[in-house]
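User: structure tokens for this one?
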Amino acid sequence: MRRVFGSVRARAALAATLVVAVALVAAGTAVLLALRSNLTEQAGSAADTGARRVATSLATGTAPGALDLDDEDQPVQVVDEDGRLVAASEDLERISGAGTGAVKPVRARTDDDGDDHGGDDEDHGKLSETTGYGNGSATVDGDGADYRFAAVEVEDTAYGTLTVYAGAPLAAEQSAVSTALTSMLIGFPVLLVVVGGVTWLVTRRALRPVEGIRAEMAAVTASQDLARRVPVPGTHDEVARLARTTNETLSALEDSVERQRRFVADASHELRSPIASLRTQLEVGAAHPELLDVDGAVEDTVRLQELAADLLLLARLDAGEKAGGAEVDLAALVREELSQRVGDRLPVTADIRGTAQVTGSRSQLARILGNLLDNAQRHARTGVHVAVGLEGAAGGRAVLTVADDGDGVPEGERERIFERFVRLDDARSRDGGGAGLGLAIARDVAARHGGTLTVRTAPDGGALFELGLPVG
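Assistant:
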């Protein structure tokens, strides 16, 4: 049971049925109330007509006892201002909801001596313009029924103020309301079953591709084969977009896993060379201390340390490490870093103008500058040039450029050099060429700071790397 109602189609069918049920109940209630009101109003109109017909006779001088009420097809009472019944329909056996519960009239009093008398042409009553209404019941000649009663007053008669009560049967209203209610009680459940069934079938058909997506994703999980793709239905709805997005996610995941595999393989390959070299030197030194190349061992250890630091930083960047929110003066940072560099192969000139405040991590920004300078030192012929400045509207962007006068970067390789473990100088020795991680780290750090890192041709024909960062 829990599994059935836990499905989307079951919940959708139940929700649709409940919504339709509420709407039907509300609409049915409104229809019944409107029908009852309309029919009750019609019955009231008929009762008012009958009451005013009798009241008109009284207003024209007809005595209550002289009224001919046998022709009336509705119960009628005439009550004086003292609440006494002075005229009533023949065969009236019981009545409620009218002027009085009495069914036998008493002799009406006159204005002078209380004797009944016929009408006087000079005595004319006045009919009330308003009509009172009420519901009640009556039994006439053994037939009991519910009635809508209308009450009309006649003033200034020879018998004082008289009130005429006439009733119109509510049988038509009750029959119509009963018939409508019965139809609703029969039709509404059938309609709800149809709505629930149609919703179930439509939802099942609509969600069938989702089940295919789920099954394929389960197969991908079980087989760990990220090359598989979920089926895309030939529709243009949300399910089709879900399938396409799922396939895009699988593609991105497959690429990420493949990059991770290549990264691990390349890292293992890069680590193997200095470790093997260091082991060889230590083994030779252990056997022949006089042959130990201490400088070579230290150099290999430094390479291992730098490579391990690069790998650790890449791992932190891949894990989503934030750039930080410190205010950094890029111009001051460049001056400080250049003053601390010793042992560079070629001189470094600088063109630093004013200040360039950016937001981020000072150590990571210094890492970008160090990696770009190390790369330029490996490729330059006579020197390296560094420049810092602001550009854009109102100085909205800080720009750091590092240029060399080497061979430059071919246009077709300008994006590839930012990939990890990619080196365009593979013919050179590993000792001089680095591991191919510096530029990849620099671009990743730049992206974490909301900036860009690109390469183009320098004025001297070499490579010019440009770092652009938003001003903090």
